[in-house]
Write a structure and sequence with these properties.
Blueprint lengths: L1 H28 L2 H27 L14 H28 L10 H32 L4 H7 L3 H30 L2 H32 L4 H12 L4 E13 L2 E10 L5 H18 L3 E10 L3
Parallel strand pairs: 2-3
Antiparallel strand pairs: 1-2
Helix pairs in contact: 1-2, 1-4, 1-6, 2-3, 2-6, 2-7, 3-7, 4-5, 4-6, 6-7, 8-9
Length: 304
């Protein structure tokens, strides 16, 4: 989680600096692709602030109102980021691009655009590098086969959101550079407008994909298949366990997992023996899945 927070902070600083530079470039040249890039960078900065707020609120411990803690605050704010800010930035970019279609070409010195976008590409590439490293580490730890699988199965919504934003930022800067260049060379504003539309559509598409993943986490998503298999193996390996009758899990946050299991113990165990075995089961589960911090065992003795 520390690495995720670092990724978010790096993205926030990069977005704020770049947003100011892009807006200045837009004012000097009038290229709408630069305005759409400004929208994106501003929304990106807002995204990071909301994600950091989610981190802060999720650190509050359990209370009477929130007996399982507030770990899902991270999922909620990641969802707000994708739906609200990603959607607004994407729509604004498409609107500006569509509005610029058919407008007359205005001669301008676009070198400032190249300088700003070049610097933005360096900043965004570094932010993407940091977020990619976080995704790769999670992929290695969880045993995911690819980054696509990590996107689909990861429980770290803030990391997914930051990584996706940084990826879109890099692609968006490249598209903006292409749009500015083609419009400057040909005098056809359609290229600049099309670049803005493409950036907006890409934002909206990925917003929907992220919102879908975050929705699943908010509703209540269980552990991965590998982790579930680890829990089952840990329980089965405990002496005194005769049969695992039911197992249910749910992520309460990226690093908090609820485990509820119904276990049939050996009929020769007395009350003290069952209690001792339950403690062993809980320790075995935590050894395999350290995030399992809420474990509830329903004990059943076999009726002779």
């Amino acid at each position: 989680m520390v690495s995720t927070r670092v990724v978010v902070l790096v993205s926030l600083v990069a977005s704020l600096v770049i947003a100011v530079a892009k807006f200045v470039a837009y004012l000097l040249t009038g290229n709408v692709s630069m305005l759409s890039q400004t929208y994106y960078s501003l929304s990106d900065a807002g995204n990071q602030v909301l994600l950091l707020l989610g981190f802060r609120l999720s650190e509050a411990g359990a209370s009477r109102k929130h007996p399982f803690g507030r770990g899902k605050e991270q999922y909620f704010f990641a969802f707000v980021v994708t739906v609200l800010l990603f959607g607004i930035a994407g729509f604004a970019s498409v609107r500006e691009g569509y509005g610029a279609l058919g407008s007359p070409f205005a001669e301008a010195d676009v070198r400032i655009n190249y300088v700003v976008l070049g610097v933005a590409l360096l900043f965004e590439s570094y932010a993407f590098y940091k977020s990619y490293g976080g995704m790769k580490r999670e992929s290695d730890v969880e045993g995911f086969g690819s980054l696509l699988e990590t996107f689909r199965r990861s429980k770290d919504a803030p990391l997914l959101t930051a990584a996706t934003e940084n990826f879109v930022a890099v692609i968006g800067v490249v598209v903006a550079i292409l749009g500015v260049y083609l419009t400057d060379r040909t005098g056809a504003v359609v290229y600049d407008a099309a670049a803005s539309i493409v950036i907006g559509l890409l934002l909206m598409f990925l917003a929907l994909a992220l919102a879908w993943e975050n929705r699943s986490l908010i509703v209540g998503e269980g552990v991965t298949r590998r982790e579930r298999a680890e829990i089952v193996d840990a329980i089965d390996a405990v002496d005194g366990v005769e049969e695992l009758l039911d197992l249910r899990t749910m992520h309460l946050g990226p690093e908090s997992v609820l485990v509820a299991c119904d276990i049939r113990f050996r009929s020769d165990l007395d009350t003290a023996g069952v209690e001792e075995t339950v403690d062993i089961v809980e320790d075995a589960i935590r050894a395999r899945v350290p995030e399992a911090d809420r474990i509830y065992v329903e004990a059943e003795s076999k009726i002779p």
